[in-house]
């Protein structure tokens, strides 16, 4: 393939995820985005909480019962001259570990805010995670067809609470029953809203220029005056869009609209393909790798079990960092130093699996995993480096797990280690006894683990209370001091699923005291794979 074609394939890609608080409209906006990408004929068919299209494995049944979505998938669709990859993230906070790691695989994020509510807890938390890499953020203020808060005030809230400057790109004309549309500041156009058209791509009416008399006719003289006045105020008080600042993660372009009414979503998409970065490189232990490098490389950020009940397999999601995947190519699994021929990588188009002929930097491919792939693993076309920066987060909830039938201890351990390699849960084996402790970020992970142990490993397990309230991965540069720490603190030490030394503390006070007592030991809240 000519170098020029290779580079244009990469440059036309945009890989992003949506961050939002539950109910802000992530699922709805995903549907509309796919509608624009022609990946859906009609909005309303994305498998969602209520559509009943979930694969029927046991734990998905469970997820359906609870009305939450824990499945992460990847959707690729064309938009204008670009190819967009949208990585869906589980909305429920119980699965925040997965969400956090998915954010390491994107190059930009769309933040959806319910404009009646403003900044909510989960958005705050997810923004913190995107700040670790200064990911560029585009903002969509949703639900303009309802009465919203003063848009200026909501933008202020974003600026002060999320520490990111706001540059309005569109500005709303009214809201709720009186929602008339938006004025696109950069295009100098008023785009008029018609209600009840949300399932389609609409033929919108556009009025060029703020002083166009058509504007008065369309929205009435008083609203038109009010709009001009508001805009004068807004332009004076807010930031202008600046691409450099956006790419540095310091400023977010803000769009207004209604996902349900499918209005304004295309403005946001236009901004995304125009401004969001083309695939970015990533760091390895041996220095950075650029997307435009010809050699294939990628890292695994998520492992998903039971995506298809007919297959009962696991799929490892690999973000291609550089180069190109081609069906049948040989890949090196660098952690185990093995070369494997991959002819069945998959992509996920709006929920459908299809076999992939080729893929480029920025794309996500699904690799079939028969138990050898872990989160954080690197695949290359022959090089031996490993990517860094795919985090594990210290769990906040702990339980001792025990078998009903004690003969299956080996199966239990195997299952737990595999589930921990997938990132479904974390497992800790204390140095001082034979307990098995399961650690999770969200309480629902516990139920998923027991259900999967039964379904996939034929192991009947139950939980008991354990006196652990927090965990930290421990490191020490000085081998002698680390050894001493290991002996003295043995009662509180454990090995995690990857045999990393971990301090498990009964209380935060205990952790604090140990930190003071062993100043040469590092206690870390995250561990990179
Ligand atoms: P989430 O994935 O972020 O959790 O949000 P989701 O899209 O499921 O939207 C949450 C609720 O908000 C849904 O209503 C959805 O229809 C509604 N919604 C999303 N965008 C808009 C919008 O622009 N305007 C209005 N008025 N509502 C919006 P629900 O009643 O919970 O579900 P449903 O019965 O409508 O499916």
Automatic annotation (TrEMBL):
Q: Which family does it belong to?
A: Belongs to the TRAFAC class translation factor GTPase superfamily. Classic translation factor GTPase family. PrfC subfamily.
Q: Which GO terms describe its biological process?
A: regulation of translational termination
What the protein does comes down to:
Increases the formation of ribosomal termination complexes and stimulates activities of RF-1 and RF-2. It binds guanine nucleotides and has strong preference for UGA stop codons. It may interact directly with the ribosome. The stimulation of RF-1 and RF-2 is significantly reduced by GTP and GDP, but not by GMP.
A GO term from the CC aspect: cytosol
| Segments forming domain Tr-type G | 11-280
Domain of life assignment? Bacteria
* MF-aspect GO terms: GTP binding; GTPase activity; guanosine tetraphosphate binding; translation release factor activity, codon nonspecific; translation release factor activity, codon specific
Subcellular location(s): the record lists: Cytoplasm
**Record's signal peptide:** none
Keywords of the record, alphabetical order, are:
Cytoplasm, GTP-binding, Nucleotide-binding, Protein biosynthesis
Q: Specify the protein name.
A: Peptide chain release factor 3
Q: Does the keyword Protein biosynthesis apply?
A: yes
* Predominant location: cytoplasm
**Which gene is the coding source of this polypeptide chain?**
prfC
Which Pfam families does the record cross-reference, listed alphabetically? EF-G_D2, GTP_EFTU, RF3_C
Binding positions (GTP): 20-27, 88-92, 142-145
Organism name: Alteromonas pelagimontana
